[in-house]
Amino acid sequence: MQLFVTPASPWVRRVVISIIELGLQDKVTMIQTRWPHNWATQTIAFDPDFARATPVGRIPALSVKGGIRLADSMTICEYLNAEHGKYRLLPREGAKRWALLSRISIAHGILEAQISRRAELLRTVNRSADFIEKMKDRGLRCFAALDEEVEAFGDDPELAQITIAAACGFADFRYAQDDWRAAAPRLARWYETFSQRPSMLSTQPAETPQ
Amino acid sequence: MQLFVTPASPWVRRVVISIIELGLQDKVTMIQTRWPHNWATQTIAFDPDFARATPVGRIPALSVKGGIRLADSMTICEYLNAEHGKYRLLPREGAKRWALLSRISIAHGILEAQISRRAELLRTVNRSADFIEKMKDRGLRCFAALDEEVEAFGDDPELAQITIAAACGFADFRYAQDDWRAAAPRLARWYETFSQRPSMLSTQPAETPQ
């Protein structure tokens, strides 16, 4: 399997953490991509392999021999969890599946707000301070909602925790001034421990290669 | 179950089409929401019921008695399909699941581009023509990729077809000048038939109430 990645993306990070937690490193070849800063407002030129892997033109993208192409992180995580992970990160069905997907859908709200805000900050013209504020509000609202769920987290890592941890890590990487810990103090205590896992330590965000 | 909706959203439409195709209309109460045009760049005031249903602050949101809250259309469709639909729109597992999720992830690329572009067009200041063009490019690239998949579509409606049809319908509603049919002529022929289903005719897009 080929996975197209960058070191800055929290969407990529949740996939890579999942790969490590499932022990699938040997099955996945990581292909670094480069993104000029004008990705935020321009259609940039895509490497032919990447263009074949995903018409969306975003990372992560997974390409599997035999023709499966998956163009978003949730679908990639579901595929790895089901086909190679014995459903250890997300149950195939039942109440626990919906509890986890409910948390994941809130964490997606954070990740989308984080990346939309990043794209706005990369605009050299027509940057909207109001839009940035709206994305900040959404993120903090979602962190506060997840703070009420911490006691229900399982002992073993699962896809909701992994996704939330990627959001916490990206908040620290790009938006430390927001202080998500003030909005979510119980989540902050949980993250203190979770962030020390080898899968977290080996995937810390770094700048996207241009 | 309570579903928070607006008549303009293609994300909402795919959920409502799924509800109709699964025959679940009696189980779901639709709650119309109102969105002032400054939703694009401002945190707007949320109705308390809606705020309780989703911290993300976006539609659709599903609230189920007993505490399940689902904050995005894919998760809602998965829940309805699994818990009330006997997996008729998306298989629980196996090769067909990944084939459909692969198409769905491309269709999501279109829907996200359509809504990001709409939000940009609603900006009264700091509107970026380049961003609008980037979103247009992404949408047409994804329509062209889906055009190559039409022959593999099943005879019965499934979640990939429903999601793609919502994208086609929104393109006609907001961006008719793009001419997605030129980029995807086989998809256009498929849509001519699919768009005549009762579930499609009864969910045609209309302006969001302000």
What would you say about this model in short?
Chains A, B: InterPro entries: Glutathione-S-Trfase_C_sf, Glutathione_S-Trfase_N, Thioredoxin-like_sf. Chain A is α+β, with helices and mostly antiparallel strands and 210 residues long. Chain A is 53% helix and 7% strand.
Give a verbal description of the structure.
The structure is a homodimer of 210-residue chains. Chain A has 210 residues and is an alpha+beta fold. Chain A folds into two domains: 2-84, Glutaredoxin; 95-197, Glutathione S-transferase Yfyf (Class Pi), Chain A, domain 2 (Up-down Bundle), CATH 1.20.1050.10. In chain A, 53% of the residues lie in helices and 7% in strands. The first copy, chain A, has nine helices and four strands; from the N terminus they run E-H-E-H-E-E-H-H-H-H-H-H-H. Chain A has helices at 10-22, 48-53, 73-84, 95-121, 129-147, 159-174, 180-183, 185-194, 198-201, and strands at residues 2-5, 29-32, 61-64, 68-70. The first copy, chain A, has a four-stranded mixed beta sheet. In chain A, strand 3 (61-64) and strand 4 form a beta hairpin. Chain A is globular, with a radius of gyration of 17 Å. The interface between A and B is large, with 48 and 48 residues.
